[in-house]
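Teaching assistant's notes for section 4

Start the section by putting this record on the projector. Ask students to predict, before seeing the second block, whether Inner membrane-spanning protein YciB will look compact or extended. Collect guesses on the board.
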Amino acid sequence: MAQEKDVNPILKQVLELGPTLVFFLMYLRMRDNSYTILGTEYSGFIMATVAFVPVLLIAMGILWYLTGKLSRMQIFTAFMVIFFGGLTAYFNDERFFKMKTTLVYGFFAVILSIGLVLGKSYLAFVLSDALPMAQEGWMILTRRLTMMFAALAVGNEIIWRTMSTDAWVKIETFGFPILLFGFLWAQFAALQKYMDLED
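Reveal the predicted structure now:
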């Protein structure tokens, strides 16, 4: 296994979060236009979606080159973006890309639920090296995060089916990540007593 290399944390964040912001900016620029390619007319949203795929792959390639490693979550997310971006373009239907968010959050909720049924925390398996915490704390966090992912999946379904594309893009780009970050921050603060593992 390749040794992970040190990289500037700000640059790392730019490479991880930058593609989503680029998609948002491309959408804002292209949303009011339509584009005809090989006799088929595509909306600005679909063209921004198609352009997002290589942007994400380039950012991931740079990240892999700099760090020598990609997380399972990054690889899975990239696969989902490529797969549903391809379906969106092939069927000329923006609903596929919007459903991608539901499936990603739903997938995480299901995987964590399977671990809970088996009495395990898959979060601990992925994050325990970076965040030492007692097993009880991991189980609590896993249960709460499972419910959060399920709520985000349901929320995405409601939003894209009942609100405008503009609203969905803004919530997808900023709303969901801010909610998830705030939730995790609150959980880590609440679970501090499980992280005091001087042993």
